[in-house]
Design goal:
alpha/beta, Alpha-Beta Plaits, TIM Barrel, 10 helices, 17% strand, DAHP_snth_FXD, 3-deoxy-7-phosphoheptulonate synthase activity
Length: 338
């Protein structure tokens, strides 16, 4: 149940009201104080609560029962947008456009440091790179693992860019202690034991939508992390599997405004995995910006033809320069008009 209080509700009325709800109905009451209103989220068996009685209180603006199974990720409980702020001051979800860029796989120190310098010069605020790589084939390159993480740290030292990289197992968490943003890939979106462990840490989690998952399932996976106490979750639309075979996946661009309406969490888009084709990255990135995405995650490699993974969807640094200019210009124009 959600109860929205009027702006003139006093602290004394709020405290008396919430304590009464807890005592009379044995429910948990979460309180969110926004810029325009105060929202109460009642968790538990609310079937015995008389909505008409609640609505009759002169300090109550509105009251309604909630059907969605996710509470902490729900905008109804948290009307203000969540903004993820990193120690270095970088923000995601504050109205600006955030870009994470870098290679699918970390291969060598020269490669990752060169790409990091180039994407930073083009305006990217975060360096992405895979150290642990989940691959469909057991014979494909699986990543440099711990050595790859060390190379990412070296690139961060040289450029100052926070690093974003994927975790595949809760057993690897000690290796990720100084990773700035931990990514949960599409294949692990419903690895609930991993999500529970990520809920125990206080670090931003980039949660990618599973290739066959619904929007509600993505939000429920976010709920697993948030239920553990970690509310620093970033949602990522990266394309879903459909009957179309021309592209690697099908970008569900409608998911962006839907997620922004249903949830307060930042939403970014991965046009690289959504298409699997380098020339499609630019138009899909532009579409994501137009749809209201808070950011993009784009694969960039200094020599895509020789990349150890996903070279076909990777941009060269020069191509990324061009795309970054276009998306930043579009974001500035659209958000100024908005």
């Amino acid at each position: 149940m959600i109860i929205v209080l009027k702006p003139n509700c006093t602290v004394e009325q709020l405290n008396h009201f919430t304590e009464g709800l807890k005592h009379d109905y044995d429910v948990k009451v979460n309180t969110w104080v926004g810029t325009q209103s105060t929202v109460l989220g009642l968790i538990g068996d609310t079937s015995a609560i008389d909505i008409d009685y609640i609505a009759a209180q002169d300090f109550v603006e509105s009251v309604k029962r909630v059907q969605e199974p996710y509470k902490k990720a729900n905008r109804k409980f948290h009307p203000d947008n969540t903004v993820i702020t990193l120690p270095g001051g970088q923000k995601i979800g504050d109205g600006s456009l955030s870009i994470m860029a870098g290679p699918c796989s970390v291969e060598t120190e020269e490669q990752i440091c060169e790409v990091a310098a180039r994407v930073k010069a083009a305006g990217a605020q975060f360096l992405r790179g895979g150290a642990f790589k989940p691959r469909t084939s057991p014979y494909a390159f699986q990543g440099l693992k711990a050595d790859g993480l060390e190379l990412l740290r070296e690139a961060r030292k040289k450029t100052g860019l926070p690093i974003v990289t994927e975790i595949m197992s809760a057993a690897h968490l000690p290796l990720f202690e100084d990773v700035d943003i931990i990514q949960v890939g599409a294949r692990n979106m419903q690895n609930f034991e991993l999500l529970k462990e990520l809920g125990k840490i206080r670090k931003p989690i980039l949660l990618k939508r599973g290739l066959s998952s619904t929007i509600e399932e993505l939000l429920m996976s976010a709920e697993y992390i948030m239920a553990g106490g970690n509310d620093q979750v970033i949602l990522c639309e990266r394309g879903i599997r459909t009957y179309e075979t021309y592209t690697r996946n099908t970008l569900d661009i409608s998911a962006v405004p839907i997620l922004k309406r249903l949830s307060h969490l930042p939403v970014i888009v991965d046009p690289s995995h959504a298409s699997g084709i380098a020339w499609l990255v630019e138009p899909l990135a532009m579409a994501a910006v137009a749809a209201g995405a808070d950011g993009l995650i784009i694969e960039v490699h200094n020599n895509p033809a020789k990349a150890l993974s996903d070279g076909a969807q990777s941009l060269t640094p020069d191509q990324f320069d061009h795309v970054a200019k276009r998306v930043f210009t579009a974001a500035k124009l659209l958000r100024t008009e908005g």
